[in-house]
Amino acid sequence: MFTQVLTALFAASAVLSAPVEFGKRSSNETMTGGRATYYTVTGTGSACELTVTDEDFIVALNKPQYTSVDNHYCGEYVTITNTDNGNTETAYVADECPECKWGSLDMSPALFSALADGDFDLGVFPISWVWGSDNSTTYNSTSNSTSSA
């Protein structure tokens, strides 16, 4: 009996001491229910300390997800779909959006325009998105450049 109790306690302590990783991206997990907005990127500075312009396809990740892993999402690609019209584009995380809710992205004007067929009057539209891109390109946040894998 003592051996069984000791074994059970050992097993429980092993499970409880295992590291838990919050906010790790999953390449097959689609974020739904988010909203797209846009902001002026050029000259605003970037939480990821990247040099970006309004013409770059970048997003500011919502604060709940951005802060869940100490900004390790900087430079990561996302593939975004406007669920109203089906337009899909790829962009990379370059900033944090303090006002955005979980699943939402604040976009550069160029990205917003591409997804909204140039209609800035929309102001906001529903999106779904997934981590990664179809072209195996990675963004190097140190040199502000891209490279193919």
Automatic annotation (TrEMBL):
SUPFAM superfamilies: Barwin-like endoglucanases (SSF50685). It comes from Cryptococcus wingfieldii CBS 7118. Keywords: Signal. The keyword Signal applies. It comes from the Eukaryota. This is Barwin domain-containing protein. InterPro entries: Expansin_CellWall, RlpA-like_sf. The lineage of its organism: Eukaryota, Fungi, Dikarya, Basidiomycota, Agaricomycotina. Residues 1-17 form the signal peptide.
